Amino acid sequence: MWFKNLQIYRLANPFDKDPAKLEDALAPLAFVPGNSLEPLRHGWVPPRENGPLVHSVGGHFLIAHRAEKKLLPASVINQFAKAKAQEIEEQQGFKPGRKQMKEIKEQVTDELMPRAFSIWRDTRIWIDPVGGLLVIDASGSAKCDEVMQLLNKSVDRLGARPVQTELSPVSAMTSWLAADEAPAGFTVDEDTELRSTAQSKATVRYVRQAVDAEDVQRHIASGKQCTRLALTWSDRVSFVLSENLGIKRVAALDVLKENTDSGATDEAERFDADFALMTGELTRMLQDVFDALGGEKKEALAA
Length: 303
What we know:
Blueprint: E1 7-11, H1 19-26, E2 40-45, E3 55-57, E4 60-71, H2 74-92, H3 98-112, E5 117-128, E6 133-136, H4 141-154, E7 160-162, H5 169-179, E8 186-196, E9 203-207, H6 213-221, E10 224-233, E11 237-242, E12 247-252, H7 254-259, H8 267-292, H9 298-302
Antiparallel strand pairs: 1-6, 1-7, 2-4, 3-4, 4-5, 5-6, 8-9, 8-10, 10-11, 11-12
Helix pairs in contact: 2-3, 5-6
């Protein structure tokens, strides 16, 4: 159940350590399937089937956001709208204008919506009330915006802001490559992206290929900066650090799995053991990432 991606937020306000309080806060916005005319519906669901909305292990909370979306492709709407427009043209003797076509598309959309398929997308959120961190398992900002919008409606005075560090990931990653030296506790892996700061945005990518120090230094000298870098932390967790401090492709390495056999016998015990292992390891890893980037900005922490 390890998170694949980490979008990291700092909780500016104290967060209640009682999972029952968070459960009560989320309950009014628990997910309910939408009706046939709703294109999108959001809500909270149990992170484990038939469990509570808040799963708590070792003082860490796990919650899950669900988005239900109706699949109604634009090509289908356009096809039906075109047929409708032809009927109207035959009746009125001339083609529908722009305004009338817009109305036709809206009418067709309303008519087709009850026949649209629904898909569910769940996004998991890890909250560390003691450490003051909130981490979303999402690769992009759109999912994070959905989660944070609903979370701010559910929890009063949440005060969560994206983590900011003294050094930007771009400048730090570029300096590590230029010096051919990873920060303490980390090693550089075979996935690197360098992008030009010029208008051309020329980009060089190393995929599953070790970077050549001299080659990279030439790219840096020509004005390129590192915007993506694969790293391994303490031989335990591998990941890719991006230019906006997003962490992607998180994976626990074999040495970690071998050395932390939980001995759990059923699914519930394994789930708890995996969550405890993940939160313990990633808490330490994230702190080392922040330290490698000069620590968190003091003004951001004080805000």
